[in-house]
Amino acid sequence: MSADLSPKTAAATITVALGSRSYDVLIGPGLMARAADLIETRLGKAKCGIVTDTNVAPLHLAPLEASLKAAGRHAGSEILPPGEATKSFTSLARLCERLLEMGLERGDLVIALGGGVIGDLAGLAASIVRRGIRFVQVPTTLLAQVDSSVGGKTGINTPQGKNLVGTFHQPSLVLADTDILATLPPRQFRAGYVEAAKYGLIADARYFAWLEQNSSAVLAKDTAALAHAIAVAVQGKADVVSRDETETGDRMLLNLGHTFGHALEAWAEFSDRLLHGEAIAIGICLAFRLSEELSLIGNNSVARVKAHFASIGLPTRIADIPGGQGPDAATLLKIMGQDKKVRGGALTLILVRGIGEAFISRDVAPNAVLHFLARQAGR
Ligand SMILES: NC(=O)c1ccc[n+]([C@@H]2O[C@H](COP(=O)([O-])OP(=O)(O)OC[C@H]3O[C@@H](n4cnc5c(N)ncnc54)[C@H](O)[C@@H]3O)[C@@H](O)[C@H]2O)c1
């Protein structure tokens, strides 16, 4: 581990080690006001085109623009509609043209100021405009700070499914300013919390136990607790990404809860009915339940995970999805069949042998998953 991850420290720097494409993730308060300096110190005197959305812009765009304008580095700002629908070919085409209109060249920078939607879209645009320009992630949601801003996966959605078109394009720097999270709606904050807890459940039982003890401080946005929660999760992701950048092995572990979760999200048509993190919370509980049915773990681990998520105010069961009738098992399995994690018709599932002991399984027959889901759908 390269970072000082002491729970008492309100700032951390984590390096994602990828040879010549290595980059730092800075975590802590007050980073936005120093953005131009932090960028210039690490990446030189580049022009910056900012991409953000209409929710984030009125709250956080001005200080970033001011910092860049003072340094003479602001090339323009593009403000897009918020929400998953923005991750589309239409928005991508328009954004690429806007970045070219801003005059960005190969040595310049795209800055993604927003949650995972803006990060995924702006990262994809940066990877193809002029055959690839650098980009900086300034994640503004907890989900983006602990997960989507790190690791270089970019993407948009198509009618065939989520994130099915995209690239691997690593950012050159990530500025995770914990102060930005002050304006994040509580439901979005809770949804992001799931992706942080995921790292504990995959490979770090001590971190999950720390979250169980300290979740109220994290939810209250206590600066040191929040920075610690983010830093440990980012370190967990950085370690995995350094080992397996393009997801041919270990990186698949980060999909704990995602095969089920993506299917639930797709069924809910990526609407506000079920946020990404909420779908992953249910998905993780399903992965633990299935692991229990396969006698890989005892009921105690399942109960701990469910109790923790429920104490945060997160859904843990398919029946918790609001708005009446939930999905049936056959529909979910069909959607799961579209998932990128399907190989040769067999499902790739991330299962667990305990808290902090996730592994990749290709052994569970689709029919067994169907029956499992049928039992879970009504609960
Ligand atoms: N690339 C990856 O590795 C990766 C990993 C996980 C998720 N994702 C993607 O991330 C997306 C979800 O990201 P998300 O949960 O950040 O959603 P999001 O980007 O839609 O942001 C959630 C909402 O919060 C608003 N918002 C953002 N920051 C705010 C702030 N500081 N104050 C007030 N409002 C704010 C946004 O406008 C939006 O309405 C999905 O598309 C998912 O596929 C990508």
Order of helices and strands: EEHEHEHEHEHEEEHHHHHHHEEEEH
Ends apart, CA distance between termini: 41 Å
- Quaternary state of this entry equals single chain
Based on Cα principal axes, name the global outline.
globular
Q: Any idea what the radius of gyration is?
A: 20 Å
Low-pLDDT runs of 5+ residues are none
The helicity comes to 40-55%
Structure, briefly:
With 379 residues, this protein is of the alpha/beta class. It is built from 13 helices and 13 strands.
Record keyword descriptors for this entry.
379 residues; alpha/beta; seven-stranded mixed sheet; two-stranded antiparallel ribbon; 13 helices; 13 strands; 45% helix; 16% strand; globular; binds nicotinamide-adenine-dinucleotide
Topology:
Elements: E1 12-16, E2 23-28, H1 35-43, E3 48-53, H2 57-70, E4 74-80, H3 89-101, E5 109-114, H4 116-128, E6 134-139, H5 142-148, E7 156-158, E8 161-165, E9 173-177, H6 186-203, H7 205-219, H8 223-243, H9 258-267, H10 276-293, H11 299-312, H12 329-336, E10 342-343, E11 346-347, E12 349-352, E13 358-361, H13 366-377
Parallel strand pairs: 2-9, 3-4, 3-5, 5-6, 6-9
Antiparallel strand pairs: 1-2, 7-8, 10-11, 12-13
Helix pairs in contact: 3-4, 5-6, 5-8, 6-7, 6-8, 6-10, 7-8, 9-10, 9-12, 10-11, 12-13
